[in-house]
């Protein structure tokens, strides 16, 4: 194996969460009589955390206080409905099983609220990951390397023995800031063209490609 530790992004990498995020967002927007957002809009807004998703989704000129209220409604609804239509991408279970059989440690680092990251990883991947971390107050979210660095310290793994895998420009920048290699995937929330523009050096199109890349010498 090339690496001892594989760190995954969650949304758009392991799980297709788009429908549940869009439903929860539009429920919150409708609560305040704001226009709903389309799936392509929500897809484009994802990657920088829940607060940024709501900030980009509310109408221009919305006050900070009202935006905070929309965020609260969004989080409350999403906590109860985060797995209504969410599912792993095809081939993810097989990939994680193969990595575990080959002795890899695995972790999730996401900009999704930590409460949701914990719920989803426990529901879909019980006992699979050695560390799971979402957005928490007081810790800079991606693309800052803070959460990645915390996972490295927690598992006592050197960054040179680690690879970060994600589907967005945020993940590419996170890996750069954490001084580790990055594998980008194009089945998530960004196109291959967008990933190339963001500086992706390796782009994979199916989960089995990840295993092939990590196993190669």
Automatic annotation (TrEMBL):
Gene3D superfamilies the record matches: HAD superfamily/HAD-like (3.40.50.1000), Putative phosphatase, domain 2 (1.10.150.240)
Q: Name one GO biological process term.
A: DNA repair
The name of this protein is HAD family hydrolase
> One GO MF term, please?
phosphoglycolate phosphatase activity
A Gene Ontology cellular component where this protein is annotated is: cytosol
User: Which of UniProt's keywords are assigned here?
Assistant: Hydrolase
Q: Which organism is it from?
A: Hominifimenecus microfluidus
Alphabetical list of Pfam families matching this protein: HAD_2 (PF13419)
